Amino acid sequence: MSQNDTSQGRRLFWRFWACASGFWNRKHARVSWALTVGLVALALAQIAVQYRLNYWNRDFFNALELRDAARLWEQAWLFPPLAGLSILLSVASVWGRMTAQRKWREWLTKDLLAMWLKDSRYRGLKFVTGEHQNAEYRICVDARISTDAPVDMALGLFTAITGAIVFSNVLWTVGGNFTLIVSGHQVTIPGYLVLGVGFYAFAFTTATIFIGRGLPAVIQSENQAEAEMLAAATKIRESGDEATPNEEALAQRTPVWLALRQVLERWRQLCWQLMRTTMVSQMDLLLAPVFAWVLCAPKYLAGTMTLGELTQAAAAFVTLQMAFNWVVDNFQRLSDWRAATNRVAGLLLALDQVETNHNASTPVTERT
How many Å apart are CA 4 and CA 295, to the nearest integer? Predict the structure, then answer.
């Protein structure tokens, strides 16, 4: 990516955020901040339950290994309340997340519509150069994506960071140090399971970013093609009641076929991009538990790690790997969001330019 593209990307993001962040600053602040704090509290509660379930996993398999029926039944009775609490918190989190998304989308859409309709700015857009075509699509569709995705991603990122801190401690405690002989010398690796998951996550995150680096641009082009096809179809519908010669009717329909061709071409490009990123993410998902078992196997076979500790470490490894691999798991969503915010910001910048042109053409006496 060139320096020009990076600079333009920052400009578009900050213009979007200048508008969208008003949801937390104005009359909706009481609702928006209550939802934000509530979502954070729910995320922390979910991590606490997950942490307790991780230790339940250890105790259950230790009891199984020792064939201790009393401890086994004790753990079996403990599982239903933990599972029920986990389900309840997940349901509550869905309500909070979707309510925040709905409220934010409502606020942003109303704000965009007000700016678009003020002083008939929508008429002035045709005289402004830039990427702002199909304003209706940007207001309806891109505004939804640009408010839905960040709530999901921000909550997921917070959970990933907090979970990484908690389960790094679990993995460090359970795994301990690993000692091996290299060329006759004894080498001790402290917290080797934590280092192992860090190396594993770094490898797959780097691969995903490299392979999917062109995904945001492809998604933005595909969204633009969809919007242009919708606009062309709307034009035909609006002129449907008019009696037009066959040649003119054919001319009206030609843009639809061209737009459809562009949509299908962009969709094909998107398919190839997603195939590559999916290959990496699925490989990551399948190999993570296997890699954890391989790392734990020497200690288990040596008798320094119980079966319960092995399963606990493997579960903690996967949880920590998922936290570290937040970029891998959210790469497509992040690309969708970047494309949507760029399109909304492009419209905002164009509306700013319309207002600037309007103020410049209005006599000073009239403005005062």
Answer: 45
Q: Which two tokens stand for residue 23?
A: 């949801």
Phi and psi dihedrals of 189, rounded to 5? -105, 110
Domain of 287, CATH number, reads 1.20.1560.10
Q: What tens digit of pLDDT does each residue of 253-312 get?
A: 677 778 788 888 888 888 887 788 788 877 887 888 888 888 888 888 888 888 888 888
Please name the residue that has the structure tokens 């901040």: 33
For residue 41, being part of any structural domain is answered with yes
pTM of the model: 0.74
Closest CA relative to residue 152, chosen from 300, 357, 326, 285: 326
Q: Determine, yes or no, domain membership for 9.
A: no
Domain count, the chain: 1
pLDDT of residue 364: 47
What is the C-alpha to C-alpha distance for residues 302 and 3, in angstroms, rounded to an integer? Answer: 54
The pLDDT, as a whole number, for residue 80 is: 93
Amino acid (1-letter code) at residue 271: C
Residue 109: both structure tokens together:
């859409």
Burial string for 153-180 (b: 16+ CB within 10 Å, else e) reads bebbeebbebbbebbbebbbebbbebee
Domain for residue 164, yes or no? Answer: yes
DSSP H or E segment with residue 139: none
User: Which residues of the chain are under the pLDDT cut of 70?
Assistant: 1-6, 129-133, 236-253, 358-368
Q: Which domain holds residue 75?
A: 17-363
Specify the pLDDT at position 116: 85
